[in-house]
Amino acid sequence: MSDLKVAVAGAGGRMGGANIRAIAATPGLVLQSAFDRSGAPVIGRDAGELSGLDALGVAITDNLDAALAGAEVIIDFTAPANSVLLAREAARRGLVHIVGTTGCSEADEAAIAEAAADGARIVKAGNFSLGVNLLLGLVRQAAAALPGFDIEILEMHHNKKVDAPSGTALMLGEAAARGRNVDLGTHSVRVRDGHTGPRQAGTIGFATLRGGNVIGEHKVILAGPSERIELNHIADNRALFAEGAVRAALWARDQRPGLYSMADVLGFN
Ligand code: NAD
User: Fold this and answer.
1) Cβ atoms of residues 29 and 6 within 8 Å
2) Distance between Cα 147 and ligand 1 center (Å)
3) Catalytic residue annotation
4) Can you tell me which atom of ligand 1 is nearest the CA of 102?
């Protein structure tokens, strides 16, 4: 089988660099193009050199058409509006679209699902790591087994992160809500401030910390009357997410158009 030709969106970003390194390190994939938003300071730079590798002969472009010409896959960890646009392009061109972008609104999610129904093969995950996807199953199980326990989800990320709670925290919340058979939207407490009154039973609370260079830490706390369970995940390196994205790209190549999760890729469903 020929090498899978990958276009990396947001090539100048933290995850863009990790994705370029993962593609270069993975047999069966080749970096077809790398692009970023127009005006980004990285336009024209060699994608390999910018990512700490030898030159790859791929200059980062802001020309979307040129970047997608000949590509079979887009790996996209950028921003919600751009991910919606790329999902539509993936549908139009019959591409695989790996979406790591977080902070999407309901309307963004609906537009991405529509693109998948229109012919794109999309894998979208708030977290591409093996460990977090395993943790989702554990959280669902624990939430179901301990119906009277209070569930709180705590996350910490670096000081450049722009959305909160993290996509992973929301996925963990969804898993807990599924375990309890409730709707997360009507059962979550995203902010507490001032005189809040006592905790309402059955809610799922979120707390967000931001600081320094933290790649991603999540803790799900199940607090009962006289004991507490804490399920933790710590990401040590962004390469983790990029390796998951590359794995998803190779998996999606053989799938029908549709919207998939990382649990589908890992066979956890
Ligand atoms: P970053 O700010 O370092 O990089 C984002 C890049 O996208 C930048 O280079 C920016 O210029 C580029 N970009 C923005 N708009 C664009 C456009 N219209 N066209 C092309 N490029 C565009 O951010 P980051 O830390 O790399 O994170 C990016 C996203 O990935 C965030 O939403 C973050 O939460 C998410 N993320 C997801 C996972 C996961 O496993 N799903 C892991 C880490 C980060």
Assistant:
1) yes
2) 37
3) 157, 161
4) 32
What is the distance between the alpha carbons of residues 184 and 192, in angstroms, rounded to a whole number? Answer: 17
- Decide the pairing of beta strands 228-234 and 73-76: unpaired
Ligand 1 neighbour 103 (Cβ under 6 A): yes
pLDDT in tens, 167-207: 999 999 999 999 999 999 999 999 999 999 999 999 999 99
The confidence score (pLDDT) of residue 8 equals 98
Q: What is the DSSP letter of 123?
A: E
Q: Ligand 1 pocket, 214 CB below 6 A?
A: no
Global pTM reads 0.93
Q: How far is CA 51 from the centre of its chain?
A: 20
d(Cα 66, Cα 73) in Å, to the nearest integer? 14
Measured distance CA(26)–CA(18) in Å, rounded: 12
Closest CA to 95 of 249, 216, 200, 261: 249
- Containing 92, the helix (H) or strand (E) segment is helix 80-93
* Atom 1, ligand 1: residue with shortest CA distance: 13
| pLDDT on residue 75 | 98
DSSP state of 163: S
Q: Say what percent of the chain tops pLDDT 70.
A: 100
Q: Please name which of 50, 5, 35 lies closest in space to residue 23, comparing C-alpha atoms.
A: 5
